[in-house]
Amino acid sequence: MQKRNWFSYTAVLLLLTVVTAGIAHFDKPGSAASQEVPEYGPASGKLVIVGGGPLNNTGIVEKFIELAGGPDARFVIVPTAGGNKTPTGEIKVYKEEEVIASWKKRGLKNVRMLHTHDPKVADTEEFTAPLREANAVWFDGGRQWNIVDSYMNTLTYREFHKVLERGGVIGGSSAGATIQGDYLVRGAIAGPDIMMTPEKEHEHGFNFLRKSAIDQHINTRMRWDDLIPVMKKYPNLLGIGLSEGTAIIVTGDRFEVMGAWKVAIHDNTRVYQPWEKPYYVLSAGDVYNMKARKIEKYGNGAQSRPQPAAGAERAQPKP
User: Fewest 10 Å CB contacts: which of 181, 224, 244, 275?
Assistant: First the structure.
């Protein structure tokens, strides 16, 4: 009888040890179970989303290269937004040496161009081979619907996402910024002044930054208010308007503003006064939590920054 009790006691102890060890493992900070899956940004990897314009002396490109692992990392440059056809209707040809020239000048040793006008080509293993080894992808500017036409729902599209899953970085400027969002603003073939396209196939971007709509050039092209109708139609989105020479560096559900100008946040969870613009403005160094819809840290802003259009900053929250 005593022997049986001893065995029962030992079994209970072993069971408690296993259960406790399992709980300790899953509760351990940094373990897969304890890490909350981001609601907006990628679960791994980072995004560099730029509002267009000249980027010299902003540090943004240098940051992109750093996040990728430095000049020795493997980079892929996608010029497709620049157009798939010439003005006369012929297939546009991109020369790799021209596309990557500025990147080579920055000291990159492993940089490739990736482009096709044909989604059938984009759906092949051969075409996507450079992406399977890439640490970083950069989307050039132009018209964002060109990128959609070439790559949406192809193997290339899936490989873009896998770059992030491996912990890589995806960046882009102007159209290369908008394509990273969920809803694709200015996706109409008829012209870039149409905020909400009637073309169903051009309503969505690549969704690297989920539940978002991203606009660009808001300072130089007076686009501060242009996301307002989009937010009225799609109130659950987070609207992000980017100035030229300005970027957000996205890690999970947070981003930090970098560059020379400002970022407009269109946030429908906030109550605005009748005299306020329905957005608020962030500056360089500000850290924003997209899930909490909250500024977590205020930076010092750019060293020299002109003021935006009248009324554009009225709804900015106070520290």
Answer: 275
- The residue whose two tokens read 């059938």 is 120
Token readout for 140 is 């050039």
Three-class DSSP category at 35: coil
- Long-range contacts of residues 87-96, Cβ cutoff 8 Å, at least 24 apart: 91/117, 92/117
d(CA 29, CA 106): 38
45 and 29: one domain? no
**Banded pLDDT at 35 (limits 50, 70, 90):** low
| Contacting residues for 203 by C-beta, under 8 A, at least 6 apart | 183, 184, 187, 197
Q: Judge whether 305 lies within some domain.
A: no
Q: What is the number of structural domains in the chain?
A: 2
Q: What is the CATH number of the domain that holds 84?
A: 3.40.50.880
Shared domain for 96 and 127, answered yes or no, is yes
CA distance 159 to 134: 10
pLDDT band for position 300 (50/70/90)?
confident
Structural domain of residue 269, as residue ranges?
A: 40-297
Q: Does 118 share its domain with 28?
A: no
Taking the C-alpha atoms of residue 181 and residue 209, their distance in angstroms, rounded to an integer, is 5
Query: Can you list the pairs that 268-273 forms with residues at least 24 positions away whose Cβ atoms lie under 8 Å?
Result: 268/231, 268/235, 268/236, 268/237, 269/293, 270/315, 270/317, 272/315, 273/315
Do 87 and 164 lie in a common domain?
Answer: yes
* More confident: 260 or 161: 161
Spatial distance between the Cα atoms of 304 and 257, rounded to a whole number of angstroms: 15
Side-by-side strand order, sheet with 254-259: 110-113, 74-78, 136-139, 169-173, 46-50, 246-251, 254-259, 287-289, 294-297
Say if 317 falls within a structural domain: no
